[in-house]
Inverse folding.
């Protein structure tokens, strides 16, 4: 009799096998030198937020949030943040495409300059805007002489300051999405006779829409929370330039309970933004 054929899936006892990787990235417990700093870091981030919730004047919250000044500041903040995001979209998406899809001398320098407002102190950004767009600024004096347009200490100035600090978030997000996107679809559209702009409008833009949306949300959130550049370039005039962060700062000096209430409103907006970005950043739904 012939010997029975060996099962193809059987493994010989002499055959070395690779140890299986445990799920979760490693085996055993968490090393104490890593666990302790991680717990302290988590507490460092969460305790201030919990303190804001614990010490909030919940009983007087309705009266604090129904004042006309609060709604005035909130309305102004939403309007200016949305306008600044629109400016960032109109200017930032083409800039991101230029950095991701074209090669030109000094591209790295341009990218560094675009991201500079991310690390620039906001007050310095406000001073720079004053020197550039103020009535006697490098560009502002011509805007005033030719068009009678004055930007500092106006609502438009708030939009300019917020767009200045928020647009880099959009550019970075869109540029990263463009670099990850397959450019062969654009090349295929070009071979079919589409111009480069048509290919961008009908092929590239729908393909990178999630990255554009994420960048717009980040830019909007950054604009909503802007303080330093706004108060330096636009001042703090109720109903005209006094946004929610400025209202929190001023209320903290005279009415701490009102400052806490306004801070909770901004915290709620931040949580809503995080919820909108959970699939992109926190990996929700990936297990």
């Amino acid at each position: 009799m012939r010997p029975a054929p060996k099962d193809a899936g059987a493994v010989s006892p002499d055959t070395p096998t690779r140890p299986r990787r445990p799920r979760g990235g490693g085996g055993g417990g968490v090393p104490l030198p890593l666990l302790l700093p991680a717990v302290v870091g988590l507490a460092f981030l969460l305790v201030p937020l919990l303190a804001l919730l614990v010490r909030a004047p919940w009983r007087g919250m309705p009266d604090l949030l129904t004042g006309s000044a609060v709604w005035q500041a909130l309305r102004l903040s939403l309007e200016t943040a949305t306008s600044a995001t629109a400016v960032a979209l109109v200017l930032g998406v083409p800039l991101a495409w230029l950095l991701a899809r074209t090669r030109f001398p000094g591209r790295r320098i341009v990218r560094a300059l675009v991201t500079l407002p991310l690390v620039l102190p906001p007050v310095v950004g406000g001073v720079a805007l004053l020197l550039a767009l103020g009535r006697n600024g490098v560009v502002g004096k011509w805007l005033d002489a030719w068009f009678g347009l004055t930007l500092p200490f106006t609502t438009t100035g708030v939009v300019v300051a917020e767009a200045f600090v928020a647009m880099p978030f959009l550019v970075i997000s869109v540029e990263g999405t463009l670099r990850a996107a397959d450019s062969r679809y654009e090349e295929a559209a070009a071979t079919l006779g589409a111009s480069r702009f048509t290919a961008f409008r009908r092929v590239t833009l729908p393909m990178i829409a999630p990255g554009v949306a994420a960048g717009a949300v980040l830019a909007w959130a950054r604009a909503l929370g802007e303080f330093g550049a706004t108060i330096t370039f636009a001042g703090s005039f109720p109903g005209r330039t006094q946004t929610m962060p400025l209202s929190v700062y001023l209320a903290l000096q005279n009415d701490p309970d009102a400052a806490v209430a306004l801070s909770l409103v901004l915290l709620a907006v931040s949580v809503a933004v995080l919820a909108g970005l959970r699939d992109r950043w926190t990996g929700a739904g990936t297990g």
The chain has a mean pLDDT of 84.
